[in-house]
Each structure stands twice: as C-alpha cells, then as structure tokens.
Amino acid sequence: MQKIYIDTSVVGGFFEREFEEYTVPFFESVKSGEQIIIVSWFLED
Questions:
Q1: How many domains does the chain have?
Q2: Is residue 33 predicted with pLDDT exceeding 70?
C-alpha cells in the first residue's frame, strides 16, 4: 500500500476529460485500497 499526497489539481483533473485517462484509474486504485491519499487541507471542507 502506497501513501500519496494530492492537491486540488488532482481532484480537479478527475472532472476534466483531458486528464480522465490518468485520474480515473488513480482514484479507482484509491477506492480499492491499493493506495492511500493524503490531501491538502483545502480539500477537507
């Protein structure tokens, strides 16, 4: 299991067609427990 720090640009990329090729599989790996994300405090609200 790998811990990865992400910021708002990674989350925003999930909603943009240009980056979905990378972000959708990334968040699927997070959802499945393969990776743990550590987020910026900007994302906590």
A1: 1
A2: yes
